[in-house]
Amino acid sequence: MTWLDVPAPWAMRLQDAASPNQEGIHELYDHIMFYLALVLGLVSYMTIVIVKDFTKNKFAHKQLRHGQTLEIIWTMFPALILLLMSFPSFILLYLSDEVLTPALTVKIVGLQWYWKYEYSDFVNKTGETLEYESYIMPDDMLEEGNTRLLDTDTSIVLPVDTHVRFIVTANDVMHSFAVPSLGIKIDATPGRLNQVSTLMERTGVFYGQCSELCGVNHALMPMKMQCVTMEDFLTYLSELSE
Amino acid sequence: MAIAPITGTLRRKIITDISLAFGCGFIFAGLYWEFEHKPLVQKREAFYAQLKAQKEAEDSV
Q1: Residue pairs between chains A and B whose CB atoms are closer than 8 Å
Q2: Angle at Cα A49 formed by Cα A47 and Cα A54, nearest 5°?
Q3: What is the pLDDT of residue A59?
Q4: Number of domains within chain A
Q5: CA angle A236, A238, A240 (to 5 degrees)
Q6: Nearest by CB: A42 against B14, B21, B40
Q7: Which residue on chain B is closest to A17 by alpha carbon?
Q8: Is A128 part of any domain?
Q9: Quick check: B43 contacting A, CB < 8 Å?
Q10: How many other C-beta atoms are found inside a 10 Å radius of the C-beta of residue B44?
Q11: Residue A93 shares a structural domain with residue A139
């Protein structure tokens, strides 16, 4: 089975989910599409009937000045549809906002035009926090299988099935940290710490792009996240701390 | 001769029209649910069930 973890040409749907948040977004998307299809069928039928009935009937609307029943119907029905769409949407919104007992915290700093990642829970042998920068891979350095404008020289490495908290900020202008496969999009604002959490349910490589217009190279500061097993994560950490 | 007011057109057809319109809507929506949503969820659930079984097998070794 192949997962859609990067944008693909002519792709119609959202990228595949790798976290419960994104699965919730998929469910919401399908619920809203259900109502959309319902409204499409209803409006199409009504349009055809109106065109058919009134094209040759010049006098049908001659005495029609207002129609209270009709107005009640066309006000109540859209209101009902909006209510049906808004409740699941609010539930998901507030569930996504919860940050429950994270096992690991990663600090993410947005800069013009790269990202800096900091594993705030760990220090290296000299007692400094583990941190590094991540720049886009230039076109002339891309290798077979790399994704243009999405691959970076270093990536955030995180363990699977672990509650991770991201603390996001910026150093110069506003940026936005977004990873579609995880259903994350959070503003990186100078002087402010925003937090969001995730739980990756499967291993893989997930990509994202800065989602707040931050200057001339806004398109050139992607983020790459590698989700690995806990053993591989610990190996990575020990290599990083040396 | 004056043309008599044409009234009651809404009342006469409204039940039929709204029922048929909702029928069309529910057919579209049902098709989307059956042929788009359900297979995707099924595929996803099957993958995670298989992943869980695999993890349990690895843990039991």
Answers
A1: 77
A2: 100
A3: 66
A4: 2
A5: 70
A6: B21
A7: B44
A8: yes
A9: yes
A10: 17
A11: no
Q: Name the stretches of chain A with pLDDT < 50.
A: none
Q: Is B24 left (phi over 0), alpha (psi -120 to 50) or beta?
A: alpha
ipTM of the complex: 0.79
Q: Check which CATH number belongs to the domain holding A120 and give it.
A: 2.60.40.420
E-assigned strands of chain A? 104-111, 114-123, 129-134, 156-159, 163-170, 175-179, 184-188, 194-199, 204-209, 222-228
Reported as a single tens digit per residue, the pLDDT across A3-43 is: 778 888 888 888 889 999 999 999 999 999 999 999 999 99
Residues A154 and A180 in one domain: yes
Contacts of A50 in chain B (CB under 8 A): none
Chain A residues touching B13 at Cβ < 8 A:
49, 53
**Cross-chain Cβ contact A41/B29 below 8 Å:** yes
Residue A199 lies in domain: 104-240
A46 & A79 share domain = yes
Q: Which of A136, A135, A207, A203 is nearest to A177 (CA)?
A: A207
Q: Which residues of B touch A44 (CB under 8 A)?
A: 24
